[in-house]
Structure prediction request, 257 residues.
Amino acid sequence: MNMTIEHDSAVDGMYDPRADSVVEQSVDRIFSYQELARLDEALTMSSRETGLRFTLYIGDLGTPSRVRAEELHARSGGNPAEAVLIAVSPGQRVVEVVTGAAASRRLPDRACALAVLSMTGSFAGGDLVGGIVNGLRQLSDQAGHPSGHRRH
Amino acid sequence: MNVAEALLIFAGIPLAIIVVLALLIYVPAGRNRRPRYKPGQPWEHAPVWYEPHPDHGPEAGHGETLAIGSSDHGEFHGAQSPDSHGATTARVVNGGPLGGARGTW
Prediction:
């Protein structure tokens, strides 16, 4: 789930002590393990329920942030048309939600704006993880189940 | 009851209770302290990209995201155009007309 520098070498099974030390430092430096578990569950469950692919980027977006977020969305893996990227730049105090063509039919811009509003409310109170989890919940509630294979 | 006993009971016991409560309150906060995000402070962490767990399918495999910093080739910054990376552009697929929203706080 956590796509940081260490990932490739860790997955490929090649032992790289330098990469290992990166893992040790970075995994819970930003968020605690509890918060990471909440993020993980929110991302996985909303992706599984809706059939869309939700990914979450936290880091600097530069200016203009929209262009950068769309660039990131194009690289988010899977089928970009069904991908939803939530990009949060705490340093710039900007959050961007980018939906692909197929995803935006189920997640209209107004629904995204509502989720963004609830996220910014939490972010302004300093609660990054809570805001992201609530935003993901709103987005996945709005998108609903994929037509065809409805699961319970 | 002499003076020493009175002091021990009426000053010692309350002090002991205060010390125990203070330890209970401040010691857990002291260790494992992570600076909490406050709006307006700079964000000095490296960018991270979280993706959902793969849904037991062949698609959405591990590490599929072309995440920033997911390889050792370093970061690709906004100033550079994606075209300057031959290897990356092959995987970049445009998702059609994009929607979404933007917010600041």
Q: What stands out?
A: The two ends of chain A are 24 Å apart (CA to CA). The CA atoms of residues 10 and 19 of chain A lie 8 Å apart. The helical segments of chain A are 7-11, 17-26, 33-50, 65-74, 101-106, 109-124, 128-143.
